Amino acid sequence: MSEESGDESTLTVVLAGGVNLAIAVLKLIAGIITGSGAMLSEAAHSVADTITEVLLLTALKRSDRPADRVHPFGYGKERYFWSLLAAVSIFASGAMFALYEGFSTVFGEATEQTDPIVGYIVLAIAFALESVSWFQAVRQVRRDAADSGQKVSVYLRMIDDPAPKTVLFEDSAALIGLLLAFAGIGLHQLTGSHVWDGAASIAIGVLLALVAYVLGRTNRGLLIGRQADPRLVRGVREHLRNAPEIEAVVDLQTMLMGTDQVLVCARVDFDDSLGAADVERACVRMATELTESFGDVTEVFIEPVPRTDAELRAAVLARYGDIAERWDKGQ
């Protein structure tokens, strides 16, 4: 991960954390004054977001530690662990409280709404502050997507740094949640029915649960060990195939070891006329070329194997299916 990109992620997380903490205090005070369940749900929402930013900041700092004897591949995946906890925090601290508050309001005793104007003012201030954090997250995501030559939707699906995606999604949910809370308070004031306030809380809880699920699924895939960007995989395969010492790339596996950290494991069929020393030198040279040509590649392992090995061939076909046949033909 570049230093500039890392600083940008840190700025995005710190800005979001500061904004969410201030908003949480305002919403809590307004919720107590107005007695609005939707406002209290939004206060819990902001508390959950603040906890999320603390976890993301922890992820950014701890994942940058250098490799050591215990963790020879570094601590890059620790970013995914803490980001997964952030997704759990959104669900446990935000969604569950909002759902509880919503159902309690709908099915509990009717409560009289007091000073709704306070709620409107706080929601307006919160929307303005939240927009600052949201625009920062959008700016980073758009810039990073442009740098990678991808559409924003594709970039978010393939992203290997969960911090900006988490901030973008939680800030988007926060803005929608504010609108839901505004609608709940407004309809309560117009109709005199507390059901609208409770319904808004339930909607906020469902929204947070959905965001937590999407972010959790993203980090689960990264923790398990997702393949690198397909464009990088194709580039590595083509680079190896064009090496004069290699007759065929039999198998190629990649795995994200962290943000901008890719492990490459290749099984290749070398020219049978090469001696052991020639193969050794070729492996060292190609590993160096890959790390220099592809900035995200940090570790390379190349294993010489015969392409006619039936057991290995069956394993490759089982993993990749028909695409393995096309690789052999250079398609």
List descriptors.
single chain; 331 residues; mainly alpha; Alpha-lytic protease prodomain-like; Alpha-Beta Plaits; 2 domains; 3-stranded mixed beta sheet; 11 helices; 71% helix; elongated
The named CATH superfamily of the largest domain: Cation efflux protein transmembrane domain
| CATH fold category name of the largest domain | Alpha-lytic protease prodomain-like
Query: Low-confidence runs (pLDDT<50, min 5 residues)?
Result: none
Q: Describe the largest sheet.
A: 3 strands, mixed
Transmembrane segments: 12-33, 80-97, 117-135, 167-187, 199-216
Organism: Amycolatopsis japonica
Subcellular location: Membrane
Domain Cation efflux protein transmembrane: 14-223
Question: Can you offer a commentary on this structure?
Answer:
With 331 residues, the chain is mainly alpha-helical. The protein has 11 helices and 3 strands. Strands 1-2-3 form a 3-stranded mixed beta sheet. Helix 1 packs antiparallel against helix 4, helix 2 runs antiparallel to helix 3 and helix 4 packs antiparallel against helix 6. The radius of gyration is 26 Å and the shape is elongated. Its main location: membrane. One of its GO terms (molecular function) is monoatomic cation transmembrane transporter activity. Pfam families: Cation_efflux. Keywords: Membrane, Transmembrane, Transmembrane helix, Transport.
